[in-house]
Amino acid sequence: MPVILLTAKSEDSDKILGLTVGADDYITKPFNPVEVSARVKSQLRRYMQLGAGNVRQELLRCGGIEVDDIQKKVMLDGEEISLTPTEYEILKLLMQHPGQVFSPREIYRRIWNDVPYGSENTVAVHIRHIREKLEINPAEPRYLKVVWGQGYKCEA
Question: What is the rounded CA–CA span in Å between residue 6 and residue 135?
């Protein structure tokens, strides 16, 4: 995020020090509010053009599914979907690695942090519940796909 110093100190040494320690701009009093607004817009435009505004790893997308890990919300085509905490974590894991296949044992190990003994059915039930909430036709999923004999993956 850009940093703009707004200060009464107008000596050249103060300006140099402020910019040296990390400020992106330095505005001294008295100032014109229109100029401040223009400088703020300029800094934000530069910030967004450099791509910093698009970096948000907490927001995951896969087709029409969007997971906001900050707010712990799942949206499907703009509508909020309610998932259990375990369903949420499974979906997030698959969406963090689009196209990567996870075996039921690996999903169990990562989500439950436990030894995956007989875990295939547990994971399959959770995947089915997620599909019922996210897919138009859970029998023919668009997003959460099975790779027979291998595991599950998220695909747009």
Answer: 52
